[in-house]
Amino acid sequence: MAKKSTSDTAGKGKKAATKKTGSSAPAKKTAKAKKEDFFSLFTDYDVHLFREGKHYKLYEKLGAHVTTYKKQKGTYFAVWAPSAKNVSVIGNFNSWNKGETPLFPRWDSSGIWEAFIPGVGHGEAYKYAVETQEGDVVEKGDPFGIYWEQPPKTASIIWDLDYKWNDAAWLKKRKQEAGKEKPYAVYEVHMGSWRKRMEENRSLSYRELAEELVEYVREMGYTHVEFMPVMEHPFYGSWGYQITGYFAPTSRFGSPQDFMYMIDTFHAAGIGVILDWVPSHFPGDVHGLYKFDGTHLYEHADARKGFHPDWKSYIFNYGRNEVRSFLISNALFWLDQYHADGLRVDAVASMLYLDYSREEGEWIPNQYGGNENIEAIDFLKEMNINVYDQFPGAITIAEESTSWPMVSKPTYIGGLGFGQKWMMGWMHDTLEYFKKDPIYRQYHQNEITFAIMYAFTENFMLPLSHDEVVHGKGSLLGRMPGDEWQRFANLRLLYGYMYAHPGTKLLFMGGEFAQSAEWNHNNSLDWHLLQYDFHRGIQSFIKDLNSFYRDTTALYEYAFEHKGFQWIDYSDAGNSVILFMRKGKKENDILVAACNFTPQVRGNYRIGVPLKGYWQEVINSDDTKYHGSGVTNGGRIRSTPVAFHGHDYSVNLTLPPLGISVIAFKEAVDSFEEAGS
After folding, report:
1. How many other β-carbons are positioned within 10 Å of the β-carbon of residue 172?
2. Domain interval for residue 79
3. Which residues are catalytic?
4. How far is CA 551 from CA 221, 270, 436, 595, 636, in A?
5. Which of 63, 100, 361, 626 has the fewest other C-beta atoms within 10 Å?
6. Of 199, 198, 197, which is closest to residue 209 (Cα–Cα)?
């Protein structure tokens, strides 16, 4: 356990007042320390890389590092504060007296302050007392702190990242499979509200999640879990998107080693771990990055570039070399030290556009007069290049809500270099369509088919994320029209359509059992709903969809290519039916999906198919095991030599009400007599 401190409390994004230098202020700045004066982790080459924006392992140099110097055990501290007048370390070890334990500026004008402090070790809480040029003293947490006090306390804690990993086989397999097509069925989780110990009114710890969440995700058949930001954040209500401790998993749920254990356990279960990462903005809490040395060190000084109007937070200065080193080091840190398998990068659109959420006159054009943030573009490309170069098999995923081109294309052909991109247009159009009463859907057929027009311009992930179940939007179930049976049938149809559609998949927690209430980060998911048949039916359907998706190459081998998809018929608006094929690499690896968006059963519905022989229904959302009405197409389905939909053969199906039926080609025959026709 960390030693107790008397540090101040978090400001929940509000800037606290600084203190004027008094009797406890740092001593007057000494001359720059000479090389021979004391121990340093920095070499001249480290400093060169840092200043060039090319040091990608800064976490090995800056921050607090327990070590031994001249046979004395202690801690080496290093912090970047180029405009500070003085910097000292404060903690219980010096009764939080500013100036008593000074750091010294390096001789090379790098702006790095450092010192080895004997007798200060593991578990000590600390901050930096930074005296500005104006004489104010601010208490700052360590930008490279790897462990922080539990909020509302705000000090960093001297710690190590020693842990014996057991996932070598997982990482080897991940590397060997780098670049190969594979399914992504992602379960998005807010760690604090997935499940709670209600009798104790608390969230689960990392260790408890390692047992309960891992087993649940494995049982449900997901390939990956994605955590909303786990980095230390003072205000729980920000869901982790207002970060102060970029290098520390939040201490709310345990220690860094506890978090490592959880990831290790996921890997042992064959499940990848994706972390939400937020390089787009940071809060103005006084103990955080904002005006770190009394100047706009990490953020732009001009509010037209440095202040985010949506989140009332601050925007990184992507053009500053040292800030790029900080951010890229941070991205790589989670892949390196915590063995994360990917990063989902938040709010990329807000980084790409200088005029994002700004009116005319509230933004500054780039040097060419445009609204593109060239510095942010260069940063994102550099970050992606390094992730894929240093961690083969890992992935970066962009939450990018505009039509910016080539987000998920390689940088060498002009792309941003992400592995995948959230398909926000599909999400919006699909949910708009589904909330309509089925009687009106015939007039909105284009809303459910339009996404295919651009589905292969990027490597798309289909997201039904936390953003769709908050801020008054209600739950996914609550947005489905009709009576109880129809609402659940609509939701099953939505999920079946999502899994059959090209692209990878992401579903926010609770959606897999039809959480009926809007998500509230203060409450646990409503697990008690699983006592009801309809909710258990949704959960069973998601479980089977995940298994079907993982085991069906036609659904993922060409997930991002035209050759993996073909319309059969998108024009039957009168019946609100769409028909399409999914194809794998092997010959005859073909699925046919039929979606009926009305509550009417469509009997003897003829569908053109490209192959003669036997087909089989492999998924039907109306199956009674999902608490549907049982309108299915059991047994083998024989194609007949009746041309339809531009194909030489066809099958007759019964389309379930508000349902999806997927059939797979199973066996070719030489003659129609052999097929029984």
Report:
1. 11
2. 19-157
3. 346, 399
4. 11, 15, 33, 21, 20
5. 361
6. 197
